[in-house]
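Just curious. Invent one:
>
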Amino acid sequence: MREFFLKLATARGEIPADLLIKNARLVNVLSGEIYSENIAVTDGRIVGFGNYEAKEVLNAENMYVAPGFIDAHIHFESTMLTLPQFSRAVMPHGTTAVVIDPHEIANVLGLDGIRYVLNNLNLIPLDVFVMLPSCVPATPLETSGAVITEKELRFMIYDEKVAGIGEMMNFPAVISGEEHTHWKINAAKWKKVDGHAPGVRGKELNTYILSKIDSDHESTSKDEALEKLRKGMHIHIRQGTSEHNLHEIIPIVTKDNSFRFSFATDDKHPDELMNEGHIDYSIREAIKMGVEPVTAY
């Protein structure tokens, strides 16, 4: 608690901050503004805005300061990089957080694979939120060896590094009311359940959403994305290596509904990460298509 009370004292202006970033152009995605601001930082956390004394002063010289980018859904294994190397690849592009679903490593190693991922999180500066793979194996035909049951999901969900249950790919079982599938969904408890509903529309979509699933990254047309949006789903706009849905879906994004959208890559190969970028690429493309910069951020 001592560190927290020191931050409070810094915020009150009683003791110097570790760092003051002066003359920044702050991109405020909450108010939708860009304006000049000074930013006080202590122990790696923003503690205040305005005029502060500081041990170190950095003059931003009207450069832009924006929140870090978030990849709302990615299977990091598809990058063919370890988490530390993945972190090195994406952080220079402005990504500071990712939501990962490690179902590819789990398909082979099961819970040991998930534990390997969780144990690596303390080694990297990237904020990683882990969604527990919900469909291991992905189909009954797979012979990769691992099986993760609803009992194991219920046990792992209490890990503080776990944000919820990963994409529920078995949407036919969800819609038909298959018991074991719904037990897996209920294993999320109070945490999130990611969706996977390619081409699911109408009453089937109603049923899928009713099952506690409130996000989707599989929309490939603006009509599909708009229906899911209207029915309450959070839309992850996917732009990765294998799927390119951004240019189709961006036209339905407005300033008023943008808070219901996120950018995601799902998978992205290392050469594209290095040469094209990560979430910063999606933001640039959205701006090119007419989305206001603050809205795109």
Remarks:
- The CA atoms of residues 242 and 267 lie 7 Å apart.
- The domain at 2-65 is CATH 2.30.40.10 (Urease, subunit C; domain 1).
- The radius of gyration is 21 Å.
